[in-house]
Amino acid sequence: QYKFRDLTIEELKNVSKTYPNFTFSMNTYTFKDGSQKDLLNFSGTVPVKYGNSYNIPVCLWILDSHPFAPPICFLKPTANMSIAVGRHVDAQGRIYLPYLQNWSHPKSTLIGLIKEMIAKFEEELPLYSVSSSDAARQSELLSYIARITEGETDMKSSRKTGGRSEGCFNKITVVGAGDLGIACVLAVAAKDVADKVVLLDLSEGAAKGGAMDLEIFAVPNVEISKDFSASADSKVVVLTVNSLGNAQTYLDVIQSNVDLFRGIIPAVSHYSQNAVLLVASHPVEVMTFVSWKLSSFPKSRVIGVGANLDSERFQYMLTNLLKAEVLAKDAWVVGEQGEDKVLSWTSCNAVANQTEAMAARNTKEKVANRTMEVLKGKGQRSWSVGLSVADLADSIVKDKRKVHSVSTLAKGCCNINSEVFLSLPCILGTSGVIEMVRLEEDPLVQEKLQSSAGSIHDLQQQLKL
């Protein structure tokens, strides 16, 4: 059942050589949503020096997408040990480390994880000894922790009703707690799109900035977590993260984002195997392509926010400022985000003769040019993109089958033969892209789309996936 069996076996051999006290077995693990899976786990002790020398008992669960997703790690305290809750350990013994949050194959390894575990435990010891009387009081807690780490929690019975998991409701996960991530959470919550919104905060340390404020003011139905398993069974997973590295060139910046996604996409795909991935990270066309490749999802379930915001603004201006409502319903911004976006139309209404056709084209061009003048200077702020994301999520979760201009696989459209994602009008529903809406045949639009496809494809060829 392990997708990358040979790589996993090789890693476990390395662990056995370096830490021979570890033992391996297959057991059933129960995730937070009550779902279960048979997973490989290994238990043992790691040597820690904290004044004296200590052997800290741990258990690591290896996900079936390893080594592209990090393991789930727990302490395994004995009866005379108590958990010291701190920066890297919670009350149930779950271990949280920067190494896990930044996991990226092939840079990240189990040996490297254990080494960081030792280093962090030497800064802050995760366990302490208790007296025999205190140990007796702990037996119930330890029993509960054992059930969690061995996949035997009461969630098996309490979360199942009528053969259906309690987790089968509308959940949306937003990955990234920056300004854009917070904006997406607030917009999704405001539009009442989902029963629950999970914000995955992948930053190191405690919650900062907006994530902390969400906790302080307790926005209803919003959960903040650093644990990928909190995203389990999401209908939509929104990607907002962007690397903040010290890259010097544009290509380096994109490669940093690709490296970041290598530690994220396999994990969220593992926990939400039927989700629609909605990419808002930059550059959206390339990062949507990267998400598609890393997730192995069908093309219909990996889309980028694309030109949805520009299209909605375009149509609004046509309707409300220029009073051209008839044109607005067929007007779209397509192609790639930024300066290379293109205005196009989906109306295929027949006209009586060539003169009428020319007049209709001239009218569209004049109206479009006036609209673009009005739109100039209206940038894409975090809150406006957040509203656009909520709009797309609403159409997906509620199966509205509404047309949006989103980044989708453009191969086969407009004589494009490469695997690139461009913004095109698509009907969206619970399965993502249901159908691509045909554009009017305009040689200039097709030429611009082909040019964008060529430049994006050339850029993608230089990336290391």
TrEMBL record:
Q: Which reaction does it catalyse?
A: (S)-lactate + NAD(+) = pyruvate + NADH + H(+)
Which SUPFAM superfamilies does this chain map to? Answer: LDH C-terminal domain-like, NAD(P)-binding Rossmann-fold domains, UBC-like
Query: Which GO molecular-function terms appear in the entry?
Result: L-lactate dehydrogenase (NAD+) activity
Gene3D superfamilies listed in its UniProt record: Lactate dehydrogenase/glycoside hydrolase, family 4, C-terminal, NAD(P)-binding Rossmann-like Domain, Ubiquitin Conjugating Enzyme
One of this protein's GO BP terms?
lactate metabolic process
Task: Quote the CDD domains the UniProt record gives.
Answer: LDH_1 (cd05293), UEV_TSG101-like (cd11685)
Where does the record place the UEV domain?
1-131
Q: Which Pfam families match?
A: Ldh_1_C, Ldh_1_N, UEV
This chain's function reads: Interconverts simultaneously and stereospecifically pyruvate and lactate with concomitant interconversion of NADH and NAD(+).
Protein name as annotated: UEVLD enzyme
| Species of provenance | Hylia prasina (green hylia)
The root-end lineage is: Eukaryota, Metazoa, Chordata, Craniata, Vertebrata
